[in-house]
Amino acid sequence: MSPNASLGAAMFHAALLMLMLVALAIFVISRRRAAGVGIGDGGNKALARAIRVHANFAEYAPFAIAGYILLALAGVSAGFIHALGTIFLVGRVAHAAGLARHEGASVGRAIGVAATVLVLVAAAARLLWDAFG
């Protein structure tokens, strides 16, 4: 069964986010092994940051994926979903890189926050428009 273009766009971006989650999990595992820590962060700041990068991603990615799917089901164009998906992915990569390298504020984190908020608000606004418009 071949999906329509909008659903295909949602599936594509969902798959990329799933792969990024796995990559971040592997990063945490490698930090755990290097630090000799089985659970928690063992007081290791680099491991604590890696865990937080993974957790932060896991907190936001499911909402983006749900938004893509709902937008596709509502018949929103594949182009709109691709635009949201690309902005979100770039933002999440920037955020992960910024948070992994800096404890405080960073350009990557700022880009990531802005991209995440933009995509979630745009998706929510479009869903509300389609639901009540």
Q: Can you characterise this structure?
A:
The protein is an all-alpha fold and 133 residues long. It has a single domain, classed as Up-down Bundle (Four Helix Bundle (Hemerythrin (Met), subunit A)). 83% of the residues lie in helices and 0% in strands. The chain contains 4 helices and no strands. It has helices at 5-35, 45-73, 78-101, 107-132. Helix 1 runs antiparallel to helix 2, helix 1 runs parallel beside helix 3 (78-101) and helix 3 packs antiparallel against helix 4 (107-132). The longest helix is centred in the N-terminal third of the chain and has 31 residues, at 5-35. The protein is elongated, with a radius of gyration of 17 Å. The model has no long low-confidence stretch (mean pLDDT 95).
**Shape label:** elongated
Proportion of beta-strand residues: under 5%
- Give helix and strand order, one letter per element, not per position: HHHH
CATH architecture: Up-down Bundle
Short description:
The protein is mainly α and 133 residues long. The chain has helices at 5-35, 45-73, 78-101, 107-132.
What is the element layout, followed by pairings?
Layout: H1 5-35, H2 45-73, H3 78-101, H4 107-132
Helix pairs in contact: 1-2, 1-3, 2-3, 2-4, 3-4
Question: Which features does this protein show?
Answer:
133 residues; mainly alpha; Four Helix Bundle (Hemerythrin (Met), subunit A); 4 helices
